[in-house]
Design brief:
Blueprint lengths: L1 H21 L2 H9 L6 E7 L7 H5 L7 H7 L18 H7 L5 E6 L4 E6 L4 H5 L4 E6 L2 E2 L31 H5 L3 H5 L9 E6 L14 E7 L18 H11 L1 E2 L3 E2 L6 E6 L9 E2 H14 L3 E4 L24 H11 L3 E5 L22 E6 L23 E4 L3 E4 L7 E4 L2 H18 L5 H10 L18 H6 L4 E3 L13 E8 L10 E6 L4 E4 L1 E3 L3 E6 L6 E10 L6 E4 L8 E5 L2 E6 L2 E6 L9 H4 L8 E3 L3 E3 L8 E6 L3 E6 L5 E6 L2 E5 L6 E2 L4 E3 L9 E3 L3 E3 L2 E2 L5 E5 L3 E6 L18 E5 L5 E5 L19 E4 L10 E7 L5 E5 L6 E6 L5 E5 L4 E4 L6 E7 L6 E2 L10 E8 L3 E9 L4 E10 L2 E8 L9 E8 L4 E8 L2
Parallel strand pairs: 6-10, 6-12, 7-10, 12-13, 13-14, 14-15
Antiparallel strand pairs: 1-3, 1-4, 2-3, 5-11, 8-9, 16-17, 18-19, 19-23, 20-21, 20-24, 22-23, 24-25, 24-26, 27-32, 28-31, 29-30, 33-41, 34-40, 35-39, 36-41, 37-38, 42-43, 42-46, 44-45, 45-50, 46-49, 47-48, 47-50, 51-52, 52-55, 53-54, 53-56, 56-57
Helix pairs in contact: 9-12, 10-11, 12-13
């Protein structure tokens, strides 16, 4: 019996000893002072990750995304992109534990642990499990309020000098200009291609206008365990702080607020419960950081800092700010080890002359800790100071943290200002994103060094300001490849060679074998390895070919370690350098489809090389459309552009040509100067059947052959058209004049317009072939521009609805418009009237023409009665003198409205009597008189 008792006592003591060894220091302290029955949140650390782990090493994308693996290549060997710490916790262990706890909160791969809510009396039972390594308290903190400014802040003017910025920053100009972000934006760098994770207390107003164009690809609420990171919907916590910090780094609303990295991609994590008395729990932040890593973020920005536990929790203090003690600092350094740039607020704990006032994880040696300055550049009174306990200088850099322009969290278009290192942090994180956008291959430590070494105190850093106020432009260029080059001057030397020399420097050195010149005539076709010369100079020679040409080129180089590759100019090959050799002429084009030609003697250039901004192939015509990239002197072609522009064409000017044409329609070009159409002669004589049709949002009858344009013309038989820039009017050219008064004008919603003639013409009314590629065109269905039929059909191509139709004022016609499919009357048009057609059931429209001759008529004014203005319409069948007068009820003449000669047709007069003080309200009569007609009508004026 005594032996059994001894054994029981020994086992009890052994179990207590095991339990004592496995319970962490801070949990022990907590349990000693907190003896109530409240559940507690703890970390359960495991001894291992199980046996079946090789499958993860052979397929890392089971754990993290492809983007995460790509980022890790910057800092890890390509065959070791994940390590043991990246492996997930063993779910078998989790399944054993889940029945012994109230709730499992988070899993941490990096710490091989889970956080749980557990009753205190069950903790010892966990320690008896052989796979449990340690049970430790999850740290909780009470958040301090944001600092309130007690000092008067200087204000940098938000007046933006002309040509200083490409955007209107409004009141956010100060915070951006102070760290030289505006200069980076002016280079076209807005943080594109960089993924940024913000970890904050939620984001309650993502509907704000400043986020309208923000690219947010993932969100997660680590407090309520759901994807929604806003307020409400049954969740705990309020997200005004996150709204403000997110707007600081990435908001965009011109005239109000622009963040440094508004072009980046964003991932949002809610890690703080503002409704709790102890809202900040470290496991939320660590889980969020591991989640961000798995998605593939490049930069994290955290505007929350952790220093003192909330009582009765045990406390860290300034002596633990050594970069190796606080779990979230350890987690931050693990993230940096995996290629993530971790940016954190230094803290709002103010100044202490004898010790640091930093907050974790800002103490991490790999973490970029950001302090706050005022708009004048002095340290904000609340900004925490260093150094770390192990003697490292902190903070790292400074940005504006007093009176920072932020989005309002209470309205979708409101703005306010806030203070704290909470706001200098996202500004600095935005600069980190700009650096990576320029050079994505930089490691986190290189990004940190670029920010430090270009800041205002880089030569003399200190514990209050670190390395000083950021300089974004210099930081972006710190590791950049710098090109110094001037293009050769234009020359008449056709044979070359042409020397291209460039000076190339980089802090990382230049690999001479990587320096190449890419070049070509009109477009890039060849490349040359450039020769190295003293003074960081490289050179190469481009050969000539004896012909005029635009030589285009760019230069490429890599750093000595191959880490960075750059081109000059920056956006090559979309943007190229050039110099010109020989003779040139210029051609103007407009946005959209153009009918153009090349007015030079062809020497082998291609259309694609000459018209680099073209967005279509070139369509020529030879009885049918065909695509060809060759320049044919004297012929026209269709080509489309997104924007208007001017293009230089190499070659000797085309001043005269005898151009072969075929019977039927021909698409011809122009000379190097504009000539009248009547100077064009034909061989055989009188071979030209139609006007010369140009194109400008629709075909038109052109009186001239304009330089650089293309034109349609129809000839009777095979022959030649002779054009000469010095020729006079010839006897072989017939004249085509349209004197018709009956014109139907059609305009679509894109501004394209066309005119059709509703009477007989004295020339061949056939239009050129329909344009290719659904280019805008309107014509009668028999491919003519004119019709004298009582009923006809109009054909549409490339039309944008709605379409407006109007009849010329001098017309004697009434036009009935019908839907071709339903034969339903759509509208009736009279001279000077316009109707709008919203849509059609087909590309056809039927018209019926009423050719009744005009009679004399004086219409009733409209409106009537009227207050101020009214309209009077009259029509006359012949050209004659018209008198229109107003009389009062006594027959006395009040005024003469019209006394002039008018052409036959319908005429409209707008009358404004409201401004005439001598005319009072009442009944008046207006009388129309001609040689053969008189009519009177009554009008009523109300004032």
């Amino acid at each position: 019996m005594r032996k059994i008792f001894v054994i029981i006592i020994s086992l009890t003591l052994s179990f207590n000893l095991i339990a004592s060894e496995k319970i962490g220091k801070y949990l022990k302290e907590f349990l000693l002072v907190n003896k109530n029955s409240e559940p507690v949140k703890v970390w359960i650390y495991f001894t291992d990750k199980g046996d079946n782990v090789n499958r993860f090493f052979s397929n890392p994308e089971l754990i993290v995304s492809k983007e995460s693996l790509e980022r890790r290549k910057k800092v890890l060997p390509p065959n070791n992109l994940i390590d043991y710490d990246d492996l997930p916790v063993n779910e078998e262990y989790v399944n054993v534990i889940k029945n012994k706890v109230i709730e499992i909160k988070h899993r941490s791969r990096w710490f091989n642990a889970i956080s749980v809510i557990i009753d205190k009396q069950n903790i010892n039972e966990l320690t008896l499990l052989p796979f449990v390594k340690k049970v430790e308290l999850v740290e909780r903190f009470r958040k301090r309020p944001e600092p309130t400014e007690n000092e008067i802040e200087e204000s940098i003017s938000t007046e933006q000098p002309n040509n200083l910025t490409g955007f209107n920053y409004g009141s956010s100009l100060t915070q951006n200009q102070q760290i030289n972000v505006v200069a980076v934006h002016n280079t076209g760098n807005y943080g594109q291609g960089v993924r940024i994770c913000l970890m904050d207390a939620g984001f309650n107003r993502l509907s704000h206008e400043v986020f309208q164009n923000m690219n947010i690809i993932a969100t997660w609420d680590f407090v309520n365990h759901r994807p929604y990171v806003g307020d409400g919907q049954g969740g705990m916590g309020e997200g005004s702080h996150g709204t403000q910090t997110l707007s600081t780094i990435g908001g965009f609303k011109e005239g109000q607020l622009i963040g440094p990295a508004f072009g980046a991609t964003y991932i949002l994590a809610k890690t703080e419960n503002t409704e709790s008395e102890t809202p900040i729990e470290m496991d939320n932040w660590i889980a969020a950081l591991e989640w961000a890593d798995s998605i593939g973020v490049d930069v994290t920005s955290t505007s929350l800092g952790y220093l003192e536990f909330d009582p009765p929790y045990p406390s860290y203090n300034w002596t633990h700010m050594d970069g190796n003690t606080v779990p979230i600092t350890i987690a931050a350094d693990l993230a940096v080890k995996r290629g993530i740039v971790v940016v954190n607020s230094a803290g709002n704990e103010g100044f202490n002359s004898t010790r640091n006032t930093l907050v974790a994880p800002a103490d991490g040696d790999s973490v970029i800790a950001v302090g706050a300055v005022t708009s004048s550049g002095t340290r904000s009174y609340f900004s925490s100071v260093g150094n770390t306990v192990d003697g490292r200088i902190k903070p790292d850099v400074m940005a504006m943290g007093s009176g920072v322009r932020v989005a309002s969290s209470t309205s979708d278009n409101g703005y306010t200002s806030s203070s704290g290192t909470s706001f200098s942090c996202p500004l600095a994180a935005g600069v980190a994103a700009l650096i990576l956008s320029e050079n994505p291959s930089l490691t986190p430590m290189q990004v940190r060094d670029a920010m430090r070494q270009t800041a205002s105190l880089s030569n003399n850093p200190n514990r209050e300001m670190g390395w000083g106020i950021l300089n974004a432009l210099q930081a972006v260029n710190y590791y950049n490849i710098v090109f110094s080059h001037s293009s050769p001057t234009d020359t008449t030397n056709l044979n070359g060679p042409y020397r291209i020399a460039v000076k190339i420097t980089s802090r990382l050195g230049i690999d001479p074998a990587s320096v190449k010149l890419f070049w070509g005539r009109g477009s890039i076709t060849d490349s040359i390895l450039m020769n190295e010369a003293p003074g960081d100079t490289f050179y190469a020679f481009i050969p000539g070919n004896g012909q005029s040409a635009v030589y285009k080129y760019y230069i490429e180089a890599k750093t000595a370690d191959g880490q960075i590759k750059k081109r000059y100019p920056k956006r090559a090959p979309q943007e190229l350098l050039e110099f010109r050799v020989g003779n040139f002429t210029s051609v103007n084009v407009t946005g959209g489809w153009n009918l153009i030609s090349v007015p030079v003697i062809s020497q082998g250039s291609t259309i694609s090389s000459v018209f680099s901004g073209a967005t279509s192939k070139a369509y020529y015509y030879d009885g049918r459309y065909f695509v060809n990239d060759t320049i044919f002197s004297g012929y026209g072609f269709w080509l489309k552009f997104n924007n208007s522009g001017n293009y230089s064409i190499p070659g000797n000017p085309l001043t005269a040509i005898s151009l072969p044409v075929k019977a039927g329609w021909n698409l011809i070009g122009s000379l190097n100067s504009t000539i009248p159409v009547y100077s064009v002669s034909s061989q055989p004589p009188n071979n030209i059947l139609t006007p010369f049709y140009g194109y400008n949002d629709g075909y038109y009858n052109s009186p001239q052959i304009e330089k650089g344009k293309g034109y349609w013309v129809k000839v009777l038989q095979d022959g030649y058209l002779i054009m000469n820039s010095t020729s006079k009017m010839t006897n072989n050219q017939i004249s085509f004049n349209n004197l018709s008064k009956d014109i139907l004008m059609i305009k679509d919603a894109s501004g394209n317009r066309s005119e059709l003639i509703l009477s007989r013409v004295d020339f061949d009314p056939e239009l050129p072939p329909m344009p290719p590629a659904s280019i805008f065109d309107i014509r009668f269905v028999d491919s003519k521009i004119a019709s004298e039929k009582e009923e006809d059909i109009i054909q549409f191509q490339g039309v944008t609805f709605p379409v407006s139709l109007s009849l010329s004022p001098k017309s004697n016609l009434t036009l009935n418009i019908y839907d071709y499919i339903t034969d339903k009357l759509i509208a009736k048009i009279r001279p000077s009237e316009m109707v709008k057609i919203d849509n059609l059931n087909s590309n056809l429209l039927k018209i019926k023409i009423d050719r009744q001759s005009l009679s004399y008529e004086l219409s009733q004014n409209y409106p009537n009665p009227f207050n101020s203005t009214t309209t009077i319409k009259f029509q006359i069948p012949v050209d004659e003198r018209v008198v229109l007068k107003i009389f009062d009820v006594m027959g006395r003449e009040v005024m003469t409205l019209v006394d002039d000669n008018f052409e036959a047709g319908v005429h409209t007069l707008k009358l404004d009597l409201g401004k005439m003080k001598e005319i009072s309200s009442g009944i008046y009569f207006y009388k129309l008189s001609t040689k053969n007609f008189t009519q009177t009508r009554k009008l009523v004026l109300l004032k």
